[in-house]
Design goal:
The structure holds two protein chains of two kinds.
Chain A lengths: L9 H22 L4 E4 L2 H9 L2 H5 L4 E4 L10 H10 L5 E5 L13 H6 L3 E4 L3 H10 L4 E8 L4 H14 L4 E7 L2 H10 L7 E5 H7 L5 H7 L3 E4 L3 H17 L4 E3 L11 H10 E8 L3 E10 L8 H4 L14 H5 L23 H4 L4 H8 L5
Parallel strand pairs in A: 1-2, 1-7, 3-4, 3-5, 5-6, 7-8, 8-9
Antiparallel strand pairs in A: 10-11
Chain B lengths: L4 E8 L3 E6 L2 E6 L11 E5 L2 E5 L2 H16 L4
Antiparallel strand pairs in B: 1-2, 1-4, 2-3, 4-5
Classes of the chains: A alpha/beta, B alpha+beta.
The complex binds iron/sulfur cluster.
Iron/sulfur cluster binds next to helix 14 and helix 15 of chain A.
């Protein structure tokens, strides 16, 4: 369903793709470099593969997946802890659907559920508050994973629980912020890209101003994009124009939805109930102040404080999800891809999530597919 | 998880609104878009309206893409 109200002439996308290729090839002729852009949103990773844009642009533009899938960036120890929370009696664990099949070191939430644990998929975290009200004799824990688009909704659930004084509701929050990880990619990981395809939905909350630092600190351009083929192709086209002219800029190519200052009501509630914390990212380790956790004032709703959950160090596997989210490896470079690791038998979160790069690659871009 | 769905507001209440998403009616929160009016479209994420779609900009983009697609590359 497009975020538009008039049909787009299908010829426009085709023509845009041709123009993107022309412009990219000119850039390469002139500089000897194939332009590389990183998408930092899991929905873009999926949409670029599903619509065939990644495939059409292959050899002309390198589209690198970044740390955009919220489940994939979650550190394995946190995943293990969230599964461990579900293992006790008298608890109901609620979560978004994507979390269910993510492999923990011992097992997944789905296998915990199959063994009789009460694990439920909810559409909104506010539903978990209702479930807590309906089950006063049980502890209800919501596993809150996500970026800035999701955190305001998590905050709304805590606000509701606080207002109604629902004492048996709490949240295990493992949330991530986009700005610190982009900085980390550019400074520590030193990713070699020419620009960012910036996340449409996160930008709804953050606004376009939030990316100014990319220009000021790194001279790195970025274009905020929607998810329709023409929206993504025109964003890539704009990135190519920017690098061709060598005039780094942040461009909002999703003005119908993203405002310059973002959604201030969402920002306000987010920081009322959450505060910055150090977060561990899969494959990157702890990045200071790169996440948000429930504010101390509301710690009675913080499941990490309420329950004593201890998990050991996760065992090492050959899964390269950590490299995948830093844009260092592509799915085909993982020796398990398509062999030991498939959507039916996923080994890492990148193969489970509907936004994971391995899942996208398996569904739409497999060489032997 | 991150996929936002455009939904048309049919009826507005205090903190929620009845919306139509591709023919399915559902209730969503409007905590973050309290100014939304009936007939407008919102992007919904995890049960909350996150942004009101600006139809003027949506139409402008259509024109712009047409122009880009027709543009000659120098
Ligand atoms: S293919 Fe599977 S094991 Fe390899 S990186 Fe992707 S999710 Fe991990």
């Amino acid at each position: 369903m497009p975020a538009l109200f008039e049909p787009v002439d299908p010829g426009v996308a085709k023509e845009l793709a041709r123009k993107v290729i022309q412009l990219a090839d000119r850039y390469k002729e002139r500089t000897g470099i194939t332009p590389a852009f990183m998408e930092v949103c899991g929905s873009h990773t999926m949409a670029l593969a599903r619509t065939g844009i990644k495939q059409i642009l292959q050899g002309h533009v390198r589209l690198v997946s970044g740390p955009g899938c919220p489940v994939c960036v979650t550190d394995q120890k946190q995943i293990d802890a969230m599964i461990e929370v579900a293992e006790s009696e008298n608890r109901i664990v609620c979560t978004f659907g994507d979390m269910m099949r993510v492999p923990g070191s011992k097992r997944s939430l789905l296998s915990a559920k199959t063994d009789g644990r009460d694990v439920r998929i909810v559409y909104s975290p506010l539903d978990a508050v209702r479930i807590a009200e309906e089950n006063p004799d049980k502890e209800v824990i919501f596993l809150g994973v996500g970026f800035e688009t999701t955190v305001p909704v998590l905050a709304a659930a805590i606000q509701l629980a606080a207002k109604k004084n629902v004492g048996n509701f709490s949240m295990w929050a493992t949330t991530k912020l986009v700005q610190p990880v982009l900085r980390e990619l550019l400074t520590v990981k030193k990713v070699k890209i020419n620009g960012f395809l910036l996340p449409g939905h996160v930008s709804i909350v953050l606004g376009e101003k939030a990316y100014r630092f990319l220009i000021d600190e790194f001279r790195m351009p970025g274009v905020i994009s929607g998810f329709e083929p023409v929206e993504m192709l025109s964003a890539i086209y704009k990135l190519l124009e920017i690098i061709t002219d060598n005039r780094p800029a942040i461009v909002n190519n999703y003005k119908s939805v993203v405002r310059p200052e973002g959604n201030q009501a969402a920002q306000k509630i987010m920081y009322e109930f959450f505060e910055p914390c150090d977060e561990a990212w899969r494959g990157m380790g702890v990045i200071p102040q790169s996440g948000l956790d429930v504010r101390g004032k509301y710690s009675r709703f913080n499941a990490k404080k309420k329950f004593n959950v201890e998990v050991g160090e996760p065992k090492k596997t050959l899964c390269r999800c950590g490299d995948m989210i830093c844009g260092i490896a592509s799915p085909e470079e993982c020796i398990l891809f398509g062999k030991a690791c498939t959507p039916l038998h996923p080994i890492g979160p990148c193969m489970v999530s509907t936004e994971g790069s391995c899942a996208a690659h398996y569904a739409y871009m497999r060489k032997d597919g | 998880m991150c996929v936002g769905v455009p939904a048309k507001v049919i009826e507005k209440k205090e903190y929620t609104a009845l919306v139509d998403v591709m023919g399915t009616k559902m209730e969503v929160g409007i905590l973050f878009v309290p100014e939304v009016e009936v007939g407008e479209y919102v992007i919904v994420h995890a049960g909350q309206g996150m942004s009101i779609i600006d139809q003027v900009f949506a139409r402008e983009s259509l024109n712009e893409w047409g122009k880009m697609a027709r543009a000659g590359i120098i």
